[in-house]
Amino acid sequence: MIDLYYWTTPNGHKITMFLEEAAMPYRIIPVNIGKGDQFQADFLKISPNNKMPAIVDHNPVDGGKAIPVFESGAILLYLAGKTGQFLPKDLRGQVEALEWLMWQMGGLGPMLGQNHHFAHYAPEKIPYAIDRYVKETNRLYGVLDKRLKGREFILGKGYTIADMAAYPWIVPDRQGQDIDEFPNLKRWHAAIKSRPATQRAYAKAKEVNPAPKGPPSDAERKILFGQDRSVIK
After folding, report:
1. Which end of the chain is more exposed for a tag (fewer CB within 10 A), N or C?
2. Architecture category of domain 2-85+197-231 in CATH
3. H helices then E strands: how many in the chain?
4. E strands within the chain?
5. What residue stretches are annotated with the GST C-terminal domain (predicted)?
6. What is the dotted CATH code of the domain comprising 91-194?
């Protein structure tokens, strides 16, 4: 059994997508980031960066004590290793998978996250910041669109953790993008959206957070964006 510490964010969706694809038994433990659940002392023991998602594997392959894993990219790699699924077996395929996973972790996620922040969450609309991150989002969409030309998925014909990592971050309307400008990306996104496991994963999100609100309140904004080292207890 996998315990999944989860909230309804792109990084959270990555893990439910994998678990549903692999048909692994898991239990969702909601971490309501708007209420500050991520700063609870018990969660800090599992995720020392105070971020979700995180997992605890109560049945690791070595038969030892439970293994906690934090950071969504690390979780995807761990689950791929545990199950032997969604990661190429050959060396070159593994290198490509790692490259595109790190591209998402180091670029696509952080840059599009800043897009979300300045366009939707920041109390003051700063044109320079919005323009900077909308344009960087456009560039990154272009990188992925080019990569997908002539490929069904990021690594070719096989669906992998690289696709699961990138998919939840592609939200064109929210990010100031016209998906029709990126035909390869549009096709890829539609194909993943239609997968039964993706649909099950996003249905879980509606169960956990059935009525997501609009912009956060001032109190929620302080929790989400106003923390310093004092939360590391």
Report:
1. C
2. 3-Layer(aba) Sandwich (3.40)
3. 10, 4
4. 2-6, 26-30, 54-57, 67-70
5. 90-216
6. 1.20.1050.10
For 24, residues 6+ apart whose C-beta sits below 8 A from its C-beta are 2, 18, 79, 83
What is the residue-averaged pLDDT of the chain?
A: 95
Helix, strand, or coil (residue 68): strand
Query: Is the pTM for the entire model greater than 0.85?
Result: yes
Question: Max alpha carbon distance in the chain (Å)?
Answer: 54
| 2-85+197-231 and 91-194 agree in CATH topology | no
Q: Binning pLDDT at 50, 70 and 90, where does residue 219 land? A: confident
Residue 219 in tokens: 């109190």
Q: The tokens of 169 are what?
A: 């971050």
CA 6 to chain CA mean position, Å: 11
Q: How many CB atoms lie within 10 A of CB 174?
A: 13
DSSP 62: T
CA-CA distance, 158 to 152, in Å (whole number)? Answer: 8
pLDDT at 232 over 90: no
| Residue 44, phi then psi, degrees to nearest 5 | -60, -30
CA–CA distance, 89 with 106 (Å, rounded to integer): 24
Query: How far is residue 103's CA from residue 89's CA, in Å, rounded to a whole number?
Result: 20
Cα distance between residue 34 and residue 27, in whole Å: 21
Residue spans of the domains in the chain: they are 2-85+197-231, 91-194
* Residue 99: C-alpha distances to residues 8, 46, 106, 142, 145 (Å): 26, 26, 10, 17, 16
Phi, psi of 57 (to 5 degrees): -95, 110
